């Protein structure tokens, strides 16, 4: 065995060869000197932002190699907390705006505020929620405990324990409603007690929103899709939740303003912002394409929201309900020629998005297996995928069985169903694009499905690429085609040392190549690293 280590852009690139080194043929030399055409790297915003009582919007944005805090007020954007790098999840304390900081990409978040750090004894935080009272609800990372922190009194109080994951919460002056796992709980400030809410409904009760004493949330217990429920929290022990709104698609994030219900409707994995009038029952689409990640009422006429589409890296935007127009306040659109279409295949159960540069000849087709077994693939900006398209590779991304947004029956399908579906899509590509080479690309937990797919159905696939891939546990994968594994050495999800050891022992001969980035976690944060990885992937495709 020979291990060769070289330094690229201050990143250690580890190449493992199990037999002889590849000969430097003309083809290899040509691929090594391959010219990569990069799209402009635009800034990208993080999901969480804060609206303060004085109408500031504080958000985190990555303009190059780290996230920094910005503030929007009166039509202008300026720096907040200058000099602090990799800050996220802005919140408010008695000392003003603060944030969580993560240096290594390992999601080991610590608050910048010294009083809060002391109260938490320097323990690692997962999330912080700022209430209208400017008290904080704190979810810890390595402990199943939820704290309530009063910045004025600087005291910490436990309000819930024993949960798996906090999905979201809502609060008013009297209580906090907490969505966790499959439960809704109400924490009463006065009594300090925790009460179960909507216990008669089975399954997740997501996206709680309070309007006075009316609680709104979504659930799919008695329907195929998530629909909107409401109940009066002043009498939660006696009044059962009532379903008030449904669509033939999943609904998320119900919020009420005046006589209108605002919500996100998921249609073919596009997350569209809509509203329906309670009185007239008339519906209106506000954002008609792409992905709305979350939204809030900034004032009487403006809605703030995080958004992305094929031309827009994830951005903080404002929608004017009077002018019916949007303004991007954190970034800019990217000019490119990548188009997307949603397709069905007779050989597969799922639908898929097909992405391609409309002005360039197709060099090959990439079967992309999205991360998160119960997540989905949406037509939105992804710097790595967009650059692969811009360099001549088309991408077919199925929302395989288990993906969300297509009804609970589809989401409840098994991993075996997903693999069978991916086989159908592989055969579809080979039939429809007979003259084009086929590749596989996966990210995170999508790697488990890719390895299962390629165990017995690797024929006709030129190469496989795994990005920060979660390893499978119930099978012993053997590398049968050229495979490139890209890892982050600070990955909080995939243990780098264990993963490296397992890959190094994998039977792959000279088919297997490993690349790791010493300053990344479970995805790319630094543009120079993602740019380097794009080049490595394109050269790997070229060689194979």
What share of residues are in beta strands?
Answer: 35-45%
Architecture (CATH level 2) name of the domain at 2-20 and 341-543: 3-Layer(aba) Sandwich
Q: What is the helical fraction, as a range of percent?
A: 10-25%
How many helical stretches?
8
Describe the structure.
This protein has 544 residues and is mainly β. Among the domains are: 2-20 and 341-543, Alpha/Beta hydrolase fold, catalytic domain (Rossmann fold), CATH 3.40.50.1820; 54-162, no CATH class. It has eight helices and 37 strands. Strand 34, helix 6 (446-456) and strand 35 form a beta-alpha-beta unit. Helix 1 (26-32) packs antiparallel against helix 8 (527-543), helix 3 crosses helix 8 (527-543) and helix 5 packs across helix 6 (446-456). Mean pLDDT is 91; it is low at 1-24.
Summarize the structure.
The protein contains eight helices and 37 strands. With 544 residues, the chain is mainly beta. It is globular.
Blueprint of the fold:
Blueprint: E1 2-8, E2 11-17, H1 26-32, E3 44-51, E4 57-62, E5 67-73, E6 76-80, E7 87-93, E8 96-101, E9 110-111, H2 114-119, E10 125-130, E11 136-140, E12 145-150, E13 155-161, E14 166-171, E15 175-180, E16 183-188, E17 194-197, E18 206-211, E19 214-219, E20 227-232, E21 242-245, E22 250-257, E23 260-267, E24 270-277, E25 283-287, E26 291-297, E27 302-309, E28 312-320, E29 325-328, E30 338-344, E31 351-357, E32 364-369, H3 383-390, E33 393-398, H4 408-411, H5 415-432, E34 438-443, H6 446-456, E35 461-467, E36 483-488, H7 496-504, E37 512-517, H8 527-543
Parallel strand pairs: 32-33, 32-34, 34-35, 35-36, 36-37
Antiparallel strand pairs: 1-2, 3-4, 4-5, 5-6, 7-8, 8-9, 10-11, 11-12, 12-13, 14-15, 15-16, 16-17, 18-19, 19-20, 20-21, 22-23, 23-24, 24-25, 26-27, 27-28, 28-29, 30-31, 31-33
Helix pairs in contact: 1-8, 3-8, 5-6
């Amino acid at each position: 065995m020979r291990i060769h280590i070289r330094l690229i852009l201050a990143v250690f690139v580890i190449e493992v060869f199990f037999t002889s080194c590849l000969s430097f043929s003309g083809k290899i030399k040509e691929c090594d000197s391959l010219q990569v055409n990069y799209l402009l790297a635009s800034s990208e915003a993080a999901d969480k932002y804060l609206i303060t009582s004085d109408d500031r919007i504080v958000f985190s944005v990555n303009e190059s190699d780290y996230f920094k805090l910005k503030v929007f007020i009166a039509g202008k954007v300026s720096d907040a907390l200058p000099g602090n790098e990799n800050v996220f999840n802005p919140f408010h304390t008695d000392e003003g705006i603060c944030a969580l900081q993560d240096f290594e990409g390992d999601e080991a978040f610590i608050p910048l505020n010294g009083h809060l750090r002391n109260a938490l004894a320097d323990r690692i935080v997962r999330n912080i929620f700022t209430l209208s009272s400017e008290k904080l609800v704190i979810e810890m990372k390595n402990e199943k405990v939820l704290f309530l922190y009063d910045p004025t009194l600087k005291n910490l109080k436990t309000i819930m324990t024993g949960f798996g994951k906090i999905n979201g919460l809502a609060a008013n002056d009297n209580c906090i409603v907490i969505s966790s796992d499959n439960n809704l709980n109400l924490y009463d400030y006065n009594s300090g007690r925790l009460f179960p809410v909507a216990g008669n409904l089975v399954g997740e009760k997501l996206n709680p929103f309070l309007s006075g004493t009316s609680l709104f949330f979504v659930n799919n217990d008695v329907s195929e899709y998530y629909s909107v429920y409401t109940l009066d929290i002043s009498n939660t022990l006696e009044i059962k939740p009532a379903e008030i709104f449904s669509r033939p698609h999943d609904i998320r994030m119900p919020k009420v303003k005046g006589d209108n219900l605002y919500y996100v409707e998921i249609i073919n994995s596009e997350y569209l912002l809509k509203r329906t009038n309670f009185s007239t029952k008339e519906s209106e689409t506000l954002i008609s394409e792409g992905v709305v990640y979350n939204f809030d009422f900034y004032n009487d006429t403006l809605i703030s929201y995080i958004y992305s589409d094929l031309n827009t890296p994830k951005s903080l935007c404002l929608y004017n309900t009077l002018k019916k127009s949007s303004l991007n306040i954190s970034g800019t659109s990217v000019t490119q020629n990548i188009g997307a279409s949603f397709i069905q295949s007779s050989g597969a159960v799922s639908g898929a998005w097909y992405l391609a540069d409309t002005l360039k000849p197709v060099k090959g087709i990439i079967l992309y297996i999205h991360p998160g077994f119960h997540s989905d693939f949406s037509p939105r900006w992804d710097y790595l995928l967009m650059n692969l398209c811009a360099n001549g590779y088309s991408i077919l991304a199925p929302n395989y069985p288990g993906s969300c947004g297509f009804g609970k029956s589809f989401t409840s399908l098994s991993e075996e169903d997903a693999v069978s579906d991916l086989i159908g899509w592989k055969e579809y590509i080979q039939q429809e694009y007979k003259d084009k080479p086929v590749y596989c690309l996966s990210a995170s937990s999508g790697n488990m499905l890719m390895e299962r797919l390629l165990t017995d159905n690797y024929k006709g696939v030129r190469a496989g690429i795994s990005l920060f891939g979660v390893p499978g546990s119930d099978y012993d994968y053997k590398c049968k085609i050229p495979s490139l594994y890209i890892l982050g050495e600070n990955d909080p999800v995939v243990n780098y040392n264990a993963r490296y050891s397992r890959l190094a022992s994998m039977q792959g001969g000279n088919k297997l190549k490993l690349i790791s980035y010493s300053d990344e976690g479970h995805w790319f944060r630094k543009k120079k690293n993602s740019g380097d990885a794009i080049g490595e992937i394109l050269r790997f495709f070229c060689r194979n």
